[in-house]
Structure formats: C-alpha cells, structure tokens
Design the sequence.
C-alpha cells in the first residue's frame, strides 16, 4: 500500500503542475485573442497523431533524452551543473569542425570520430567546474553558468572567423561532409542517433538503478558529509559525475548537429537551448531514467508541434518557452509532501463517520 | 588620456546595474534565500520598463509600473520558495526561463525585433552633468554625466550598509538567515522577513533593468541582461554578502567589462574574444577567493560549503 501511495503521489506531483502550466499558458493565449484549445490541438495532432509526426517527435527527443540524463545525474547528487548547455554547444561545434575538416574516412568511422570528439570536448569542458568544485569548493552553479557565456563567445568568434562559410549569408560554419551525417531511415526523420540515445538511456538506467555508482550518487545527493564519513571519496565521485554529465551533454550536441542541423549556426541550440530543455526534462521525470524518457518524448512533442502553430494560428511559437518556464516553476514545488498518504485520504472519504487522524 | 577616462566612465556605467542587483540579492542571501531569480527579475525590469514606457509614453510612469510588475514576480518567487518550501535554485531558474520566454513571446506577438523608445526618452537629456566636476579631467568622467539610477545605485551601497547593520530590520534579516528557529523563538515572523528581503531584491532588480534598458539605451532587445544577474550572485559570493565588499566586486566586474569594450577597439581581428573576459574573470576571481578560503582548511575529505 505504501509503495502504491508513493507512485500515486509522484504521478500527482508531476501531472498537477503540467495541467496548471497548460491552463496558465492557455490563459496567455486567450489574452492575445487566440483560441487556446485550437493551439494545443494543433500541437498534439501534428506531433503525436500521425506517423510522420511521431517519428519526427522521436527524432527531436533523442538529444533531449541525453541532456535530461546529463542534468539528472548531477542534480541527483545535488550538484547544480548548468554546464550541460555549454557542453552541448561546444560538442556540437567541434563535432562539426571534425565533420568538415577530416576527409576521406568511411561513413561509420567518420561518424564515430565526430561523436567521440563531441564527447571528449564535453568532458574537458565539465572537468574545469568539477575540479574547482571538488578541490576548492567553488560554487559549481555560478562557474558553469559563466562558462556557458564563455563558450558562446568562443564559438561565435571561431564561426565568424576561421571556420566561416563565405557562401552562406549569415554566420555559419561549413556544412559537414556526407560521410559524417546520420542517414535518415526510410525517408522519415528518424536516424540512428535515436537508437544511440536509447542505448545511452539503457546504460544510464543500469547505472542509476543497479550500480554502486548510482547508489553513491544518491547518497552524495542526500548528505555529502555523511557519505564522506562512511568512506566514499566524494571528491573523486563529484569529478566522475561531472565527467559523465559532460560526456552525455557533448554527445547530445554532436548528435543533434549530425542528425539535424548539419552545420553550426549561432542558433544551433535553439532558444532556450538543449541544456535548459534537459533541465525541465530531468525535473519532469523526477531524476528517474524512465521518467526522463517519457518526459523527453512529451517535451519533444510540444516542440515539434509548436513548429506548426504559426501555420494555423497567430500564436508565436515561443509559447512553448513560456510553458516551459511555468513548468519548471511549478515543478520546483512538491504539492504533496512525504507525509501525505493517498490511501488514508481515500479511506477517510469512505469512512467519514470515524474521526480518527490517519496521519498520526 | 581619453582612453583612460572612457574606461573609467564605462566602469561606472557597467557597474551600476550590477551593484543594484548585488544589493538586491544581498538581503535575500542574508535571509538564507538563494535568489537565482535575480537574472529573470532584472530582465523583467528591463522588458517591462521599456514596454510600459512605450505604451504610456512617460518615462517615470513606465519605471514605476515596471517596479510593480517585478514585485509581483518577486511575490511569485517568495510564494513558491518560502511558503511552499520549494527548491530555490529550481524556482529561480523557472523565473529566469519564464521571463526570457515571455518577453520574446510578447515581442513576437507585437511583431517587433526590439522595443525602441528613443522617440519618448531622450537618453542624453537623462545624463546629469555636474557643473564644476565635469571639467576636471579624470574625476569628471568618473563622477559626472551619469543617469539618476546610476547615482542612486552608488548611494544605495551606503544605505544598504546602514539598513543591514544598524536597523532592526537588518538584524532581523541576519538572524533569520543564521538561525531561523532562534528567530522564531523570540517572536520574529521569519516568513515576513524573508518575503520582505526577496521583495527588496525584486524592486532593486527592476531599477537595474530599467537602468540597463530605458535609461541608457532607450531600447530593449531579447535577453539583454546577458547573465548580469548571475554575475551579481558571483559578486555576492565573493564579497561574503557584505554590502561594501560585494559592491567592490561588482565594480571590478564592471571594470572588466569596460576594459573588454575599450581595449577591443585596438585588438583588431581578435576583438570578438574580448567579450568573454568579464565572464572568465568571474570564474578566476571565484577560484582565487575560494582557494584562499580553503587554504587553511584542515578538515579531511569533502565538506559542503
């Protein structure tokens, strides 16, 4: 009974904020004189109720699954790593550079080299805040946030200068070679990248649920000093957690570039970027791998659907960002706390005559 | 000489919004509420002040309305964070992303790339030139020719110090931050104190945003705060949440920004890289401050904060 209660409570704690965010978003849509029901219907219909749309949703979900996992692994250890966004951008950029400078490799090898570049760059990027956090106790949140801005400036500088494609009208690098592109499967939007994301998901599921590291992450998240006292090397673990997070973030960026964008532009990561979407997804999935998978697909559906809103209504597609902000805001609160018991409430409804306090 | 004076002028110019955000964040930080929402509140101040000036056609009415709107945002943050006991960091990020999306949503809806109110606000007219000091070479560029809110921000450093250390309210804020149970036991309403601390921060952030957008450029562009709220948080960390010390860090970051802008003129092709100097400097300053603090740390293993 107790386990069922926890599951019910967790579901309520996710579904209620989602419903609230959509109602508030609907009020905003109504306020600018559009029909909220039509807008939401267009969003869902285009992204979930057609085969093409569904495949497109899955395609856009792939980087989001990865960034969600990357954020979740650090948040679960109570490390607020905001550098996933930076890792994704940097990973995407350098995968792109390798994608058009290295020539003459067979497809599989070239893709592997590009992905590996993204992973390594992401790891190197998150090594800096990890070392600062572990050995000097520098607040990782501020450092990673600042480094995100540094990354944007570096990438802007490089893509305006050395790697700029002169034939393109705006700031953009050269497109990657054919051999570095993920091929579309059966003319749909889906690529092998989705299956790579699923593979990473499976690995992370095992890490979270079955491995020693997963347990240690949980313990550090609950109480780092106690974990240290019981013999865990918290410093090393923090570095390992950050490296995993950076690697997955870099993979997300490089894969997204090679399966969707093919060339690096300044709006590569979108607005808000992949990393911020990942934060929402990690929260929606309450740092649980399966939850993250569902949340990523749900959010990808919203994003895919939002592309079509403009065709049918006058609502700007930024409405998805507004809903995202509202969702994060509402998800930060546990509406039902740990003492709340569903079964007691239900029993209470049936046995109204008895005035016993079940919460005792 | 003109380079030096323009560096000094820009230093004051870029420090002002940072100082306001630092002072605003201080109260919340002292009350043990980590206000990550500073960035979003500042952006809200910048956006709403420009929007209201655009809609009402009056500068001061616009700024007043924007303070009200930002206070509502502060109320939302306090309600979630303090009454509902949420995770401050995530709530703050929710605020940041929400404001960023809302402003770009409204801009798209109004079909404008940015809000330009230069026809209503005369930017050069807002600068106050102090008669005698203006003529003194370096001091003149340091002290004269700034806007009202800029002067206000520097005056507020002293005001904040006095409020924090010499008034009942300041003592309450610090007591609540250090030991909430003790504060409650002597009859301090800790919730009210925390709400007040966050709301002061929201109001000051609104001014910072107004200073950034309306007063200086008469223009709002998407995401124009560009991380200044986080820089303010870094400054609070480095200055151990003391008003003067944290403000000095804010001024150092202002100096970095001004150096980056002024020296980029001479850098030629790599001038683009100068943009990242202020952000990099924060990482380095944070590192040095923390390294000095942890040098005498003899505790074995990992210790949080």
Sequence:
């Amino acid at each position: 009974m107790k386990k069922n209660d926890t599951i019910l409570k967790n579901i309520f704690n996710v579904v209620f904020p989602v419903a609230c965010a959509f109602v508030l978003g609907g009020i905003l849509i109504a306020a600018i004189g559009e029909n909220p029901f039509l807008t939401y219907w267009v969003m869902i219909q285009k992204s979930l109720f057609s085969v093409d749309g569904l495949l497109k949703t899955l395609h856009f979900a792939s980087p989001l699954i990865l960034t969600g996992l990357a954020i979740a692994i650090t948040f679960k250890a109570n490390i607020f790593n905001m550098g996933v966004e930076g890792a994704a951008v940097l990973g995407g950029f350098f995968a792109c550079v390798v994608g058009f400078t290295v020539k003459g490799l067979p497809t599989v090898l070239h893709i592997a080299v590009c992905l590996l570049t993204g992973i390594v760059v992401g790891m190197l990027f998150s090594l800096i805040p990890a070392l600062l956090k572990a050995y000097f106790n520098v607040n990782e949140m501020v450092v990673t946030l600042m480094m995100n801005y540094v990354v944007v400036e570096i990438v802007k500088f490089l893509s305006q200068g050395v790697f700029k494609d002169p034939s393109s009208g705006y700031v953009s690098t050269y497109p990657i070679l054919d051999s570095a592109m993920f091929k579309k499967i059966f003319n749909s939007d889906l690529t092998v990248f989705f299956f790579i994301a699923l593979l990473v998901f499976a690995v992370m599921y095992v890490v979270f649920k079955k491995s020693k590291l997963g347990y240690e992450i949980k313990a550090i998240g609950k109480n780092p000093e106690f974990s240290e006292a019981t013999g865990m090397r918290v410093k090393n673990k923090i570095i390992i957690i950050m490296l995993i997070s950076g690697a997955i973030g870099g993979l997300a960026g490089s894969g997204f570039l090679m399966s969707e964008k093919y060339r690096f532009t300044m709006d590569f990561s979108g607005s808000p970027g992949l990393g911020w979407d990942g934060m929402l997804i990690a929260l929606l999935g309450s740092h649980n791998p399966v939850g993250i998978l569902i949340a990523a697909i749900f959010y990808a559906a919203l994003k895919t659907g939002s592309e079509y809103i403009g065709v049918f209504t006058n609502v700007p597609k930024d409405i998805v960002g507004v809903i995202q902000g509202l969702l994060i805001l509402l998800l930060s609160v546990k509406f039902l706390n740990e003492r709340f018991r569903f079964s007691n409430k239900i029993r209470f409804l049936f046995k109204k005559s008895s005035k016993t306090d079940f919460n005792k | 000489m003109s380079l030096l004076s323009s560096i000094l002028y820009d230093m004051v110019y870029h420090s002002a919004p940072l100082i306001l955000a630092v002072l605003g964040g201080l109260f919340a930080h002292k009350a043990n509420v980590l206000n990550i929402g500073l960035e979003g509140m500042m952006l809200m101040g910048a956006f709403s002040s420009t929007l209201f000036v655009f809609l009402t056609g009056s500068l001061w009415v616009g700024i007043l309305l924007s303070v009200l709107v930002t206070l509502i945002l502060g109320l939302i943050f306090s309600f979630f964070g303090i009454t509902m006991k949420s995770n401050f960091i995530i709530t703050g990020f929710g605020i940041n992303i929400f404001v960023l999306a809302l402003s770009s949503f409204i801009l798209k809806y109004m079909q404008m790339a940015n809000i330009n109110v230069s026809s209503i606000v005369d930017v050069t007219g807002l600068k106050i030139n102090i008669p005698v000091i203006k003529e003194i070479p370096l001091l003149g560029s340091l002290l004269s020719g700034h806007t009202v809110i800029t002067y206000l921000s520097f005056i507020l450093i002293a005001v904040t110090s006095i409020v924090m250390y010499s008034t009942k309210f300041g003592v309450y804020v610090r007591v609540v931050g250090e030991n909430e149970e003790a504060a409650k036991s002597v009859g301090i309403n800790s919730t009210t104190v925390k709400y007040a601390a966050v709301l002061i921060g929201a109001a000051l952030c609104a001014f910072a945003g107004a200073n950034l957008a309306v007063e200086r450029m008469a223009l709002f562009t998407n995401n124009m705060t560009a991380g200044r709220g986080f820089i303010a948080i870094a400054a609070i960390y480095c200055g151990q949440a003391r008003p003067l010390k944290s403000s000095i860090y804010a001024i150092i970051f202002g100096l970095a920004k001004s150096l980056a802008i002024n020296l980029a003129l001479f850098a030629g092709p790599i001038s683009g890289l100068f943009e990242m100097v202020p952000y990099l400097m924060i990482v380095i300053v944070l590192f040095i401050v923390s390294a000095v603090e942890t040098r005498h740390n003899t505790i074995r293993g990992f210790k949080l904060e």
Summary: The two ends of chain A are 16 Å apart (CA to CA). Chain A touches chain B through 57 residues (CB under 8 Å). Residues 353-360 of chain A have pLDDT under 50 and may be disordered.
